[in-house]
Structures are given as C-alpha cells and as structure tokens.
Design a protein that fits this description.
This protein is an alpha+beta fold and about 625 residues long. It contains 20 helices and 21 strands. The strands form seven sheets. The chain has a six-stranded mixed beta sheet. A hairpin with a 2-residue loop joins strand 12 and strand 13. Helix 3 packs across helix 19 and helix 9 packs parallel to helix 13. The N terminus and C terminus are likely disordered.
Amino acid sequence: MVATLEIGLRATSGAASPQFCAGFFVSTPQLAFPSKTRRKYWRKRFLYRSLYATSWTQNNCLRSCEHEKVNHRSQFFSCQCQRAEDTSGIANSDAKGSWYTTQIPGDLNGQKFTTNGSPYRSRGSAVEDEAWRLLQDSMVYYCGTPVGTIAAKDPSDSSSNVLNYDQVFIRDFIPSGMAFLLKGEYEIVRNFILHTLQLQSWEKTMDCHSPGQGLMPASFKVRTVPLDGDDSATEEVLDPDFGEAAIGRVAPVDSVFCITINSEVLSMLLVFAGLWWIILLRAYGKCSGDLSVQERIDVQTGIKMILKLCLADGFDMFPTLLVTDGSCMIDRRMGIHGHPLEIQAYNFQALFYSALLCAREMLAPEDGSADLIRALNNRLIALSFHIREYYWVDKRKLNEIYRYKTEEYSYDAVNKFNIYPDQISPWLVEWMPDKGGYFIGNLQPAHMDFRFFSLGNLWSIVSSLTTTHQAHAILDLVEAKWSDLVANMPFKICYPALDGQEWRIITGSDPKNTPWSYHNGGSWPTLLWQLTVACIKMDRPEIAARAIEVAEKRLALDKWPEYYDTKQARFIGKQARLYQTWSIAGFLVAKLLLEKPDAARNIWNDEDAEIVNALNIFPRGKRGRKALKKTYII
C-alpha cells in the first residue's frame, strides 16, 4: 500500500515564480553553490517556518516560500508545510508553478509506519514492543513530518526540570536513526539529515564571536510561536542550539572541542555532531539504496564544509585532534585535554577516522575536491599509524613502557613521548590480562592516561582504525574483564573511575561525577549497539548476545534510564533521566542487528586497502631529517 501525498505548488498568476526552500538546494540556482558572495548569505540566520493554517487537509496542501526579514541580523525562508525531500519536485516545476505529486511510502516492510503517528506492529518480546512504542512517542514532527526524536520523555519530569532533554540532539538521534533504517523506515532519517543541514548555515554568535562555517548544532527544538502580524495564528520554527545557552557556555560534546588554527587556539563549536551526521548519511544511502541525497549539491557542500574545519592546518605535530580542558558537554573538567581517544563517552579520534572514510566514499569526484581528498587521504594514513602505534597497550607493551629510559634526545628514541615508567598505575599492572589489550585514553608528552574508554575502543573496531589483531584483543579484554565492564548492566563508560585525591584535583570535587557515576565510570545502556556492531564485524556475536541478555532483564523494569551508578552498575544513576531515547534505541539496534547481522555492514567501515599498503611501507626505523632537494643561500 502506498500513500500518496499531493503537494500543491502554485504561483500567483503573472508574478515571478516563487522560491521554495528545502535546504540550500532551491529553485534559484545561485543559492546552491558556495561562492564567496553566497557564503556571506549563508552566515545570515534563517528560520525554516511552517505555517499551520485551516486549509490543511490530509493529503493536499498549498505550499510556498517567501523571503522575509526578521530583525537586523536574521533572515529566513517562510515555508508553509514544505517537505525537505520535495526539492527535486520543486526544481522541476514549471515557471508558472504547476502541481507536483510525490509518493510517500505507507507500508515499509509490512510495518505500517506512517508519518501521522500510526501504531507500530508488534515486533517480538514485550520489552521490544514497549521500546518501539516509546521510540515512536519520542518522535518530533515539523510541518507534519517526523524530523527526529527528543533526548528523553520522562512523564514524571516537571516542565522546569526538563532542561534541554526535550530537544533533538544530533548525537542522540544516531541510534534512533539506525533503528529506523534497519526497519526500513527511511523518511524520518532523510528529513533529519536535510533539516540539520539547513541549520548548518545558521548564524552562530557568542559574545560577538562567530565560529567558522560548517558547524552543526548540538541540538534543535521545534517551537510554536505567534505568526508575525497575526496574533490569532501560530507557526512552527526550528530553533537550533550551538551552545549559547549551555551551562558554563560549553556546548554539548557532540559539537565542541578546541583545535589549533594558525596562531590561536580558537574555541570552536565544531562538527562532532557533523561527523555523526556524515556517518548517518552514509548509512542512509547504504540501507535505503537512495544515493540521491548524498549526491545533492547542498549535501556535498555540507560535507566539504565539515571536512575543511576538521582538516584545517595548525601548529600541532600530531594527526589526532587537539582538545583543551573543559571541552566537554558536562561543562566541567574531566582530565581529557590534549589528544584523547574519546571525550567521555563520545568517541573522538575513531569517530573522526570513520567520518573521513565515509566522506571520501560519498564525495563526488570533481576538480574542486582534489585538494580536499588529497588532504583527507594523508590524514587517514597518518592518523591510523599514530593511533595503532602509540595508543595501543597490552601486557607486552606495558612491560616495554615499564623499562623505558627517559630524557632521550635523538631521532630514533624509543621513548618518543618521554613517558616515565612510574606513571603506570598500580591498578593497571594487576588489571591487564595475559590475553587482550586496548587503546589508552590519552597520549601527550610525559603523560599517558591508561583508563579504558569503551566507546573509543569499540568504534575503533567499527571504523577499522584497529588492526585485526588489535580488534580481537579488545574483545578478548571485554570477555576477560566482564565483571568490571558489564556486571549488572552494559556498558561501563570508562574504567576505572577517578576517586580520592585524583577525583578532587581533576574534577574539582564534582558532585555529579562522583566515582562510578555518570561520566566517571557509570554504565550506559546505549553503548550496546556499538558493542554489537563491533562483535558482529569480528564474527563474535555471542559477546553482544550475552550483554543484551543482561540488559533486557532490567531496562524496561527500570524505565529505560540514561545511565547506572556504582562499580557493578547496581543502581539507577542518581541524576539519570528515565525513558532516555538513546537507551531505548541502542537496545533496539542491538536486537535488530543480532536478528539481521548482515545489516551491520551498512554501519561499519571495511579496512581500506590503500591505507594498509601505505602503512606497510611506513617508516618505522630510524627517523632523520630529509635531505633538501635544493640548496638555498641566505
């Protein structure tokens, strides 16, 4: 059964053809290209607005867009019920504004999923049925179509206690989007991709400073506001958050870190969300077979803007991304400055690596992309070597570090980062199994953070940042240390927790991140889906199945909390939100992948043959200065 949605696009007789907005790719050609004059235009803040009118009918509505000034620095498209994916139909409409009809799936894989919120079909166990119902209840609609899922929908929360959990977070939607894709429900993911792309060009200003182009918001909210000039009518607007209202004015981690650019360290609300957006875009194309979205000019431009921010040249000598202390969504210090593998549950270097691979796969070959692709390839090779060579630790490597000499000054030094053997924590000597290993949490001169960060290691497997041996060793470690990393609820966000004097100094006695709570060793159910993808990729699904069995016993009974506290994950987190959407979606994705393991191929990155070949010839011996090809007289 296919539901037909007739979209009326009719121009006023004798007037100029109207412009219909759907991202940057509109009927006016010049708005689709990133010229210098258009970049100035894109910096202007615009609102994509949908007018609720009494003329709405179930399958037919008149849609039009017009430019309108909001204030001295804001400009927006006013969009009456315009769907983001209708761009191609708009672009193909004639100059007089003909009627356009598009087909919207009403029966996908027999699930009877529609955009008007019709119930899901029963899918399996009672826990799964409840999860699907809750995921549907969390869906957010804009102009009558689904555009995302809110972070949490706890009915016991008062309106004053909601904070920003009623917003659609880019990062939080990823497991939701994966769940929809695996069930063949593609529309919500497509809408999410295109609407967040529209918000990429929103004007972002904090205390008179505007960060660079390409920035994705951490989250957005659909707000209903009075219509200008008519107090009796209302309209919907998309209101993004780039960190302007965040606690401590630190944006959520999925879009903030600091990198060195030129002679300054600029605090940039950068593209962590954008990196997830790239990964979801690729997954959408692979699952749906619809490559037209990633081929659109505005989408290609969005990918390039994100990459240019990530690949910007700076003073840093390392290919890993640089993070300053406090660049965390929890607006407090957690000892993750420098070049961390991840930023407290949000994989960082591995996500960066994965997004670069996905972007390279989707970028259209053209003359304008040659330099960007070249820089991308160089960064992939350097990043892969750096992480595999210097972040890896197992029993053999630990013994090597234990015997390090210090203060070496030479090109062929063994202890390149001048690590002092006394930095090896006593807990690690006892904790490291004979079989297994992992990527450490952080590496910088004279400092190694030996904590095990779960998501950074799991996504390193998913993205093929690890070697095959390293990937299996990480899973060996998970099995060997099951009582520490899983216990009563998967999965421990990091191990061990900061405590005692270390906790007081590093976190400033943070009352929310007490030992074995929240981001200091708490257990997060949403990590189930990343664990499942990693296990399926390495042909070890029994590990994921065992973890899912543990989670399924408690999640529904505990009302799907955000995280769990205590060393064995016995208690619901003291400040954890209930009915957390990504806990629900993470469980569903894990269950779906176990049922259809071949679908995991649409999520992971295969090891790149060119990178493997380059690493095989990468110099690992004596490093000296390269001879100059020319002699210069100064």
